[in-house]
């Protein structure tokens, strides 16, 4: 068995990982850690939930000189939530291992003056959105001349039409000899072409192992389009859902569906692109601790989030692309847990379900009875209202 120590991770970090239940490296971690430590430029693709964040964070933290009070590692992410999630993981690792590395998250929507004041503490690892990083750097508040490693998390998003300009502007502020590591669960042809300006990096692709695939089930429920919201409501009552993530394609539809679910007593919240930072943070916090059972989200808002204990993903709307389905499905059955993806499709959408099967090599099975989990009986005398109110979900 390969260990983190075998890969070159220093002794101080290994017991911290063990305390978190991380005893051996995943496939992408085995492929990436040594290469990042050696300074190579990389593009790494692996499914969601396979440990890409640790694959670059562990060697990044190890390479930082804690005595040098300058930004040495810069990590760009496409959403507020992902940037702060990365900062939280890095901060915990540094603190628990006694590395003394200062970590700071810089995101739009937060106080610019407060962030500028935090930069006076000279953090060695900075993560955030390209726009806010660029703004603080141009003001002279963030110094990037000593940055040795740049990481683009969800790099296909960081190099899309919306983010490319800011990402490229940040890159121009970095030293010419900096290392670049790019990671994502999916990689588009356009993103690969645009990555050439970052030094023709080596490409690594790691698929999901067979054991993990077997822990994730894919179901389809045939239902008229106008009845989909009602079906989600019924499924949320009849299935033993601990945490359910419901994907929709448009924020407007998500808001209407949320209102219907809440009216019927379902503990639900939303994570949508137009919400402000505080609203999104509250929704995620409520979902993590079990104050809400269902979280309605669009793909842009939920991309890259690592929320444990999601046992069901519901596709109220079918994704536009097969790779988007892969991202959604990857929110469940993580870290060895089992999970299920339930797709709601009307008659016209069933052909698209068949296309997803062919492109992704998966099989959609009908959900027995249309609404019940296989092998489980419905609870007798279950009330119309959400019967699990006040029950804390499993972590």
TrEMBL record:
Instruction: Say if the entry is tagged with keyword ATP-binding.
Output: yes
| Stretches the record annotates as Disordered | 362-395
A cellular component annotation (GO) from this entry: cytosol
Q: What GO MF annotations does this protein's record show?
A: ATP binding; hydrolase activity; RNA helicase activity; RNA strand annealing activity
In which residues does the motif Q motif occur? Answer: 2-30
InterPro entries referenced in this protein's UniProt entry, alphabetically: DEAD/DEAH_box_helicase_dom, DEAD/DEAH_RhlB, DEAD_box_RNA_helicases, Helicase_ATP-bd, Helicase_C-like, P-loop_NTPase, RNA_helicase_DEAD_Q_motif
What are the Helicase ATP-binding domain coordinates in residue numbering?
Answer: 33-205
Q: Name one matching Pfam family.
A: Helicase_C
Some GO term, biological process aspect, for this entry: which one?
Answer: response to cold
Q: Where is the DEAD-box RNA helicase Q domain?
A: 2-30
Q: Which keywords, in A-to-Z order, does the entry hold?
A: ATP-binding, Helicase, Hydrolase, Nucleotide-binding
Enumerate composition-biased segments (Basic residues): 375-395
Helicase C-terminal domain residues are 234-375
Which PANTHER family does the UniProt entry name for this protein?
ATP-DEPENDENT RNA HELICASE YFML-RELATED, DEAD-BOX ATP-DEPENDENT RNA HELICASE 47, MITOCHONDRIAL
Question: Can you name this protein?
Answer: DEAD/DEAH box helicase
The species this protein belongs to is: Selenomonas montiformis
């Amino acid at each position: 068995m390969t260990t983190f120590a075998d890969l070159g991770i220093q002794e101080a970090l290994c017991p911290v990982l063990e305390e978190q239940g991380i005893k051996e490296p995943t496939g992408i971690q085995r492929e990436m850690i040594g290469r990042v430590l050696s300074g190579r430029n990389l593009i790494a693709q692996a499914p969601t939930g396979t440990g890409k964040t640790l694959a670059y964070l562990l060697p990044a933290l190890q390479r930082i000189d804690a005595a040098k009070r300058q930004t040495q590692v810069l990590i760009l992410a496409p959403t507020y939530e992902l940037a702060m999630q990365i900062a939280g993981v890095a901060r915990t690792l540094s603190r628990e291992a006694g590395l003394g590395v200062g970590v700071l998250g810089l995101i739009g929507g937060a106080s610019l003056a407060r962030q500028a004041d935090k930069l006076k503490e000279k953090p060695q690892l900075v993560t955030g959105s390209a726009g806010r990083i660029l703004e603080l750097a141009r003001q002279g508040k963030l110094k990037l001349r000593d940055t040795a490693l740049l990481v683009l998390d969800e790099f296909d998003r960081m190099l899309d039409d919306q983010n490319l300009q800011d990402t490229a502007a940040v890159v121009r502020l970095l030293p010419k000899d900096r290392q670049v590591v790019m990671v994502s669960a999916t990689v588009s042809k356009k993103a690969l072409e645009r990555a050439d300006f970052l030094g023709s990096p080596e490409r690594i692709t790691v698929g999901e192992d067979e054991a993990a695939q077997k822990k994730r089930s894919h179901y389809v429920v045939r239902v008229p389009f106008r009845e989909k919201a009602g079906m989600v409501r019924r499924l949320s009552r009849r299935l033993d859902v601990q945490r359910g993530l419901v994907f929709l394609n448009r924020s407007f539809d998500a808001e209407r569906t949320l209102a219907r679910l809440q009216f019927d007593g379902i503990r639900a919240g939303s994570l949508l692109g137009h919400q402000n930072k505080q609203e999104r943070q509250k929704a995620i916090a409520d979902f993590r601790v079990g104050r809400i059972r269902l979280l309605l989200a669009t793909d842009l808002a939920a991309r890259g989030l690592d929320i444990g204990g999601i046992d069901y993903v519901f596709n109220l709307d079918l994704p536009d692309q097969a790779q988007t389905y892969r991202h959604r499905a990857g929110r469940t059955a993580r870290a060895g847990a089992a999970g299920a993806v339930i797709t709601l499709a009307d008659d016209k959408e069933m052909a698209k379900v068949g296309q997803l099967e062919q492109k992704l090599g998966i099989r959609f099975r009908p959900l027995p009875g249309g609404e019940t989990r296989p092998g489980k009986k419905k609870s007798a005398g279950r009330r119309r209202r959400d019967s699990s109110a006040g029950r804390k979900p499993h972590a």
